[in-house]
Specification:
By secondary structure, the protein is mainly alpha-helical. The chain folds into two domains: 32 residues, no CATH class; 45 residues, no CATH class. The protein is 59% helix and 0% strand. The two termini are 29 Å apart.
């Protein structure tokens, strides 16, 4: 099921871009929860990549971190998944 953080992030973007009105937030969130109740989501962000790089005393720009995320997605292997060890290899 989609978590509250992700739901709010998506709804915030829709409100900001005037796709939906703020008053619709709770209804949209309810629909998102219902539609995703039989799913799980694992999310990784640019900030995760940057933070992990810093732990390894490396500097990664936001642009490079986005490229790393793109590579992770393009080369995703479901038998391994995406975890900190995999991210280390891409950094």
């Amino acid at each position: 099921m989609i978590n509250s953080f992700l739901a709010d992030m998506f709804i915030d973007a829709m409100v900001k871009n005037m796709i939906v009105k703020e008053e619709q937030r709770e209804n949209i969130k309810a629909v998102m929860y219902e539609a995703s109740k039989d799913m799980i989501f694992s999310t990784w962000s640019v900030d995760d990549i940057i933070d992990k790089a810093e732990m390894r005393n490396k500097r990664v720009s936001r642009k490079s971190a986005r490229a790393i995320l793109d590579n992770l997605e393009d080369r995703f292997d479901a038998s391994i998944g995406i975890n900190w060890d995999v991210i280390d290899e891409y950094i």
